[in-house]
Amino acid sequence: MAQSMRALCICSKGGFMFIETYYNDRAAVAGNISETGIPYPELAGEELTMWRKYLPFNRQVESLHYSFNGMPVPDIVSTEVERAKKAPHLFDHIEIWSRTDDPMAVGVIGGAKPRYFSIVRWGDAELTLAQVKRKLRVEKWILSLTWIAGISVSLAAAMYIVLQ
Prior knowledge:
Layout: E1 5-10, E2 16-21, E3 42-43, H1 45-54, E4 57-61, E5 67-68, E6 71-72, H2 75-86, E7 93-98, E8 104-109, E9 115-123, H3 129-163
Antiparallel strand pairs: 1-2, 2-9, 3-9, 4-7, 5-6, 7-8, 8-9
């Protein structure tokens, strides 16, 4: 990812919340005169795939209120989302991708092949892409084990009933 600002803030319920903004005021202007530079890093390829899997729930936002999923939204996050929304002709809309306590605001440029840009991420933990991959692998492994255990119990119960 490009230049980012990281912060740790104290939550009103106690504990800490990780915040990472991705705005880069020194973003290079694209070579094409008709396209202005976008001051946020684009999510593409493997990075896009991993974040979409890790943050499976998304919704378009008009405004970011004082809370999101029952958790207070830090001022830094609201400010960054508002900055992205107010930039003329930057994004078609902004989505919040999330899972329980780890949301990310994403700018979307629509069309036949949409483009996605990281605006700000906040929540429980500071995660790198490698950690996200590892976490997804573990979750998949646990889901597979749960499925196998469920089938095993069902087969054992069926065999018990047949053998009686």
